[in-house]
Amino acid sequence: MFIPEASNSAHYVDTTFWVIVVISAVLLVGVTSAMLFLIFRYNRRRGAKAEQVQGGTALEIIWTVIPVVLVLVMFVIGEKSFRLIRSVPREVMTVRVDARQWSWMFGYDNGLRSDQLRVPLGKPVKLRLSSADVLHSFYIPAFRIKEDCVPGMETYLWFTPQQQGSFDIFCTEYCGLGHSGMLAKVLVMPEKEFTDWYTGSGAKGNRGLQLLQEKGCLGCHTTDGTPKVGPTFKGIYGRTVTVITAGKERTIAVDGDYLKRSILDPGADMVKDFPPVMPKIPVTPEELEAIEDSLEHLR
Q1: Do 159 and 256 have their domain in common?
Q2: Which of 47, 86, 141, 187 makes a 20 to 30 Å CA pair with 291?
Q3: 246 and 224 in one domain?
Q4: 234/50 Cα distance (integer angstroms)
């Protein structure tokens, strides 16, 4: 599948990749051809007498100099791409990327947070990467950028988007049960459209759903009725579920008390047939009320 070169670094990364591929292919063909020639030209014959073959100075020089030159070519091209990727411009918009099992959250300098990375077309963006739990790896194939998100430290990436549209974000470091579903999108928008979102309507919306995004809940639960690592939130209020409490099964109707208890103490009543992997979610009483209210009305 063709993946577009949608950032300023993509062309340099692709050039480096193809130079290495071509050199490797030429070496593969050359070595294989020489091996086949020697096999058929000097195969053992009845009555043939073996004799010692002395090395040649010219041959030694050739097969020493050529590999050195090829390695230096790959080094220079790769170093140029690496320097571009790691040298952040002075004028750059900064976005915080918070990784957790199993979702991405993007935070902007004005306090806005989103589960999608929105950026303006043609403007440099620096990503400050961190992880709340285990090792993750942030990857945008169309931009040819990837960097690990490490617990306890901050890493970074930067890019200038050069194509408008929606592009995939993946986690490429196995991070647990929901790793394959740790997906997001980067939306490259015209500058005016991005500014309108950044300063206006983007800050509005359902407070409870925003909190579910910010706390990473939507990495394991969906709002469209599809089960994921955990049960879906759609229609959860009033639903009858079978839970495991202190090792015993019981059937309950989901209400506000159950939802709050499940957030504050996830291991108290585990829904049957779902893995016990939910961590405790740090929330204030006000946030807890907002989340419970949103789940009650999510139909």
Answers
A1: no
A2: 187
A3: yes
A4: 81
The first and second tokens of residue 257, run together, are 């008390």
Is residue 262 in some structural domain?
yes
Identify the DSSP state of 289: H
| pLDDT tens over the chain, length 299 residues | 567 788 888 888 898 999 999 999 999 999 999 899 888 877 777 666 777 777 778 888 988 998 899 999 999 988 988 888 888 998 899 999 999 888 898 989 888 888 889 999 999 999 999 998 899 999 999 999 999 999 999 999 999 999 999 999 999 999 888 898 889 999 999 999 999 888 875 444 567 777 777 777 877 887 777 777 778 888 888 888 888 888 888 888 888 888 888 888 888 888 888 887 777 778 888 888 888 877 877 76
pTM of the model: 0.69
In CATH, what number is assigned to the domain containing residue 161? Answer: 2.60.40.420
**Position 81 in a domain:** no
Distance CA 118, CA 194 (A): 7
What CATH code is carried by the domain that includes residue 262? 1.10.760.10
What is d(CA 99, CA 164) in angstroms, rounded to the nearest whole number? 25
| Boundary of a domain, candidates 203, 224, 242 | 203
- Provide the domain count of the chain: 2
Question: What long-range pairs does 72-77 form, CB within 8 A, spacing at least 24?
Answer: 73/19, 73/23, 74/16, 74/19, 74/20, 74/23, 77/15, 77/16, 77/19
The domain containing residue 281 runs over which residues?
A: 207-296
Last residue of a domain, one of 203, 227, 254: 203
Give which of 216, 117, 213, 127 is closest to 167, Cα–Cα. 117
- Give me the residue label for tokens 């089960």: 227
Is the sign of the CA dihedral 199, 201, 204, 210 positive or negative?
Answer: negative
Q: How far apart are CA 139 and CA 185, in angstroms?
A: 11
